[in-house]
Write a structure and sequence with these properties.
Length: 247
């Protein structure tokens, strides 16, 4: 068999990468459409994980269960970097397109009732994008604080993630998310420091010179690709370990 030249091999590799990115984007678009249909009757998508939650057994003695609460960035982690979750007591409860009020409504069935030791909350970018209408930064922050307070009241350690950098939203351009993300992240970081939560800083490791998401770490400027999740994974593990050590 004749060997392919390096330029030709590189060309086919580029085609494969482009096809993978398109397949991922198509899958997320279909999921988003499905979620929008569900939202017409179930705004917070309480039914999205209803069956899965019913199958979750009580934690085993000594189990360090962690629930990841979030949006498409969280749920996409499970498909683009499934190795991160394999063999670990981690439960992914991300729903594509969701905003903080929707997460707050489903926080009890999707987090508290699963009895984790730690919850990792990643939320806010879809609020800034206006997915469920205009929401002031103070209200977005308040919803995140409410989730943290619910968790703490139920003996769950809290990891509060920074919002990932985004220079613009491809589905809703011109909203100037850079300054709004910076504002929200500053509030989350300050709250975490004062309220015995762990601040998980994805932003610093992933931002480019324009304060957007580094091109090598994303396929659309907002959502991480596998390389992006490989940056996020060790940061999340370190934050979880720190939270588990808290009394």
């Amino acid at each position: 068999m004749k060997k392919l030249s390096w330029p030709l091999m590189a060309f086919f590799m580029m085609l494969g990468t482009a096809a993978f990115a398109q397949d991922t984007a198509d899958a997320e678009a279909k999921q988003k459409q499905k979620n929008e249909e569900l939202m017409k009757q179930d705004w917070a998508c309480l039914k999205c994980f209803q069956e899965e939650n019913a199958k979750v057994a009580a934690p085993e003695p000594g189990e360090k269960r962690v629930v990841f609460m979030g949006n498409s960035i969280t749920i996409g982690w499970g498909s683009l970097n499934p190795e991160f979750f394999k063999g670990k007591p981690y439960i992914n409860r991300g729903i594509s397109g969701q905003t903080t009020p929707q997460m707050l409504i489903r926080f009890r069935p999707d987090v508290i009732d699963l009895h984790p030791k730690v919850v990792v909350i990643l939320a806010g970018t879809n609020d800034i994008a206006g997915n469920t209408g205009y929401t002031p930064i103070a209200t977005i922050f308040g919803n995140i604080v409410s989730m943290a307070e619910l968790a703490k009241a139920n003996g769950i350690k809290v990891v509060l993630s920074s919002v990932l950098p985004a220079y613009d939203y491809p589905w809703r351009k011109g909203l100037d998310p850079v300054s709004k993300i910076a504002d929200l992240n500053q509030r989350i970081k300050a709250y975490a420091a004062k309220n015995d939560c762990v601040y998980l800083d994805y932003y610093t490791a992933m931002a480019d010179e324009q304060k957007g998401l580094q091109k090598a770490l994303t396929y659309d400027g907002v959502h991480p690709n596998k390389e992006g999740y490989l940056v996020m994974g060790p940061l999340a593990e370190k934050a979880i370990a720190t939270a588990l050590k808290k009394k």
